[in-house]
Write a structure and sequence with these properties.
It is a single chain. The chain is of the alpha+beta class and 190 residues long. The protein has one domain (43-185): lipopolysaccharide transport protein A fold, CATH 2.60.450. Helix content is 22%, strand content 56%. It has one helix at 2-42, and strands spanning 50-61, 64-77, 82-93, 99-110, 115-126, 131-140, 145-155, 159-169, 174-185. It has a nine-stranded antiparallel β-sheet with strand order 1-2-3-4-5-6-7-8-9, with helices on one face. It is globular and about 75 Å long. 17% of the residues are buried.
């Protein structure tokens, strides 16, 4: 009987330790997410070398639009080789004819690397009916990767997926939700 009590106590202690470790990891991720969101908002427009309002950039290659960027305002910081953007909308036109619209409240573009960060009500919609919502994303241009540590919600005509954190490799066309994944099949044809 004594061995059973000790075994139960050790089992409960182990379970409590695992729960505590998972809570600690989750809190650390949330803290990091808040710190990253604060980084975007810390840069004040007063130190900007240049300010533009209601802008629209379009890139074309071989007579075909590849992307468009619209923003309520842009602040350029020459010394940091960076721009901050307010009320951002980016439209990307893929070679296969699909388009993707990405929007968010504020962002940063690093001109030397073409890396981008977007925060605040980030929404990505695709022309084939998918919609992704999260708080922030980061785009690494050299690796064509998009990441987010935040909760995400992906919805299409037949599926709804929620989770925490994501990783997208645009070259390999792979998408991974990092934790707490829940999927709901909405039914449909087939």
């Amino acid at each position: 009987m004594r061995r059973i009590k000790i075994a139960l106590f050790l089992s409960m202690l182990l379970i409590a330790g695992v729960v505590f470790a998972l809570l600690w990891i989750n809190l650390q991720e949330r803290k990091r997410t808040l710190e990253e969101a604060e980084k975007i908002s810390k840069i004040s427009p007063e130190g900007a070398d240049q300010r533009l309002e209601k802008i629209r950039f379009v890139e074309e290659k071989n007579g075909r639009k590849t992307w468009e960027l619209e923003a309520k305002a842009i602040h350029q910081y020459q010394g940091q080789n960076m721009m901050t953007l307010e009320e951002v909308k980016v439209i990307y036109y893929s070679k296969d004819g699909r388009s993707f619209i990405l929007s968010g409240n504020q962002g940063k573009v690093y001109q030397d690397t073409k890396n981008m960060e977007l925060a605040g009500n980030v929404i990505l919609t695709s022309s084939d009916g998918y919609r992704l919502k999260t708080h922030s994303i980061s785009y690494q241009h050299s690796g064509k990767r998009v990441t987010s540590p935040d909760p995400i919600e992906l919805e299409g005509a037949e599926i709804r997926l929620v989770g925490t954190g994501m990783w997208v490799n645009m070259e390999e066309k792979t998408f991974k939700v990092l934790s707490q994944v829940k999927t709901q099949w909405k039914g449909g044809k087939g």
